[in-house]
Amino acid sequence: MDPIRNPYAPGAGQRPPELAGRDREVEAFEVVLERIARGRPERSLVLTGLRGVGKTVLLNSLRSQAIGRLWGTGKIEARPDTSLRRPVSAALHMAVRELAGRHRAPDRIDDFLGVLKAFALRSNDDGAKLRERWQPGIDVPATRGRADSGDIEIDLVELFTDAAAIATDVGTGIAIFIDEMQDLGTPDVSALCAACHELSQLGGPLIVVGAGLPHLPTVLSAAKSYSERLFRYQRIDRLDRSAADRALNAPALRENVDYDQKALDLLYEKSGGYPYFVQAYGKATWDHAPRSPITAEDVRVAAPEAEAELAVGFFGSRFERATPAERDYMRAMAALSTSAADDDGLDGAVPTADVARSLGRRPASLSPARDALIKKGLIYSGERGTVAFTVPHFGRYLRTQPF
């Protein structure tokens, strides 16, 4: 098979050639956009799921839908220990510039940009020297007395309210897309919830679409109790069998290539239906297959290459980020997770008390390692007293490594 024609794309956030299994989410977002266009109230949206299920890909796809409706859009990736103020300023600046290019309301937009600049400049430390002060690149004077109090919750509510008013004036909407949303700091999460709450009460045409790990709803709820009713939550899971087959078949057929049924059976068994793994195994199988149709034997020959690539780029890179104490914690989790596996052999959540017992330590003494792993996005706590891996098959990977 010609590797140049290989259609599969196992990249972080890279759109696959066939966005299979996400029709429900795409259609639901189309309803949200249409309802807002008609002045109907709608909630902001939160996508949650393990790593490798395609949250970022779906987030980008939803953004494309909004752009297709001539909305203003901006996207940011949250990072630990980084304030929301600068990235949200850049995202809103981009969204408003999109609106300015499509709609004629220069005075209103300039007024808003003055507020946005004031909001952005509050990210600078008061004692910072002039050459060290960050400039947001907005060519209008900063407006005083609006979104510049220094309290992120007050300021974000005022900023989003003013941005929604601009969208109303030009007859469209604004959507801010936030990836890795669980990494926002507590004050920023609280401010974001408060701003979305205010918008929902006013019916303003501005929504936030966030994506994050499975414990993101818990993070939001801890910040504001009403967040459970504030967002529409959609859990993004692995693909079912028909969707996984479509993700492999559709791009192959466009290249006049077929799979036999046993090859698809084995590819689903190997990938578990996780979109990233589907692409990784599909790419390796294509490169090793001598001709069409692709057979189960081609899959078996190619599987070690796909697994080696996943071991380095998907699993190994994450394991390397952990300290020795954190690695011990994860290895203990991996050993215990086999007994908590589901019917498909996927690692389940394990009690933190059992992890401590297996390491011969008191649970409290392991709290720093556990909290650091959660902060690094390697594990999450879906329920009190339990932890699970954020990466599918990570436990299996750890159990097979000769550490």
UniProtKB/TrEMBL annotation:
UniProt xrefs under InterPro entries: AAA_16, Cyt_c-like_dom, P-loop_NTPase
Pfam families linked: AAA_16
Region feature Disordered, mapped onto this chain: 1-21
One of the record's GO molecular function terms: electron transfer activity
Superkingdom assignment: Bacteria
Domain Cytochrome c residues, every copy: 168-319
Keywords: Heme, Iron, Metal-binding
Name this protein carries in UniProt: Cytochrome c domain-containing protein
